[in-house]
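README, section 4: Worked example with a bound small molecule

Sections 1 through 3 covered apo chains. Here we extend the same pipeline to holo records, where the ligand is supplied as SMILES alongside the sequence. The molecule in this example is zinc ion. Nothing else about the input changes; the structure line simply encodes the ligand pose together with the chain.
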Amino acid sequence: MKGYKGWEKDCEYDYNVFIVCNSSKEAKGISFRELRDYGSDCEYIDVRVKWIKEGNIEGLPFGVCDEAEELIRRNIFQRLPEGGRCDRCNEFDIPVEHYKGECLCIECIDRIRGGKNE
Ligand SMILES: [Zn+2]
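The generated complex, written as structure tokens:
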């Protein structure tokens, strides 16, 4: 199986679906249903999918993965602009990013980079 990102072309919302499945065609079908469920009125032809080659999908089940923090830890998604939870300080509803296998807020990343926490 492979990991795919799915989204709606020219959509005003930055909403991505992540799917573990066998082909881009399958990923497109699943993305379409998921985007519709999310409230989009997109047409099937507007759905785009991309194979995320570098992401580690080991152990993820078939289908949609909506655990954003887990996707960030695995370096499948690099950042979440809002609504994330930091692995270190446990702040939530904040922007978070991938940092060396963890899902962290900007403050924690700065602290690590500054060498005060390691
Ligand atoms: Zn933090």
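What to look for in the output: Residues 1-66 form one domain. The chain has a mean pLDDT of 92.

Section 5 describes how to batch many such records.
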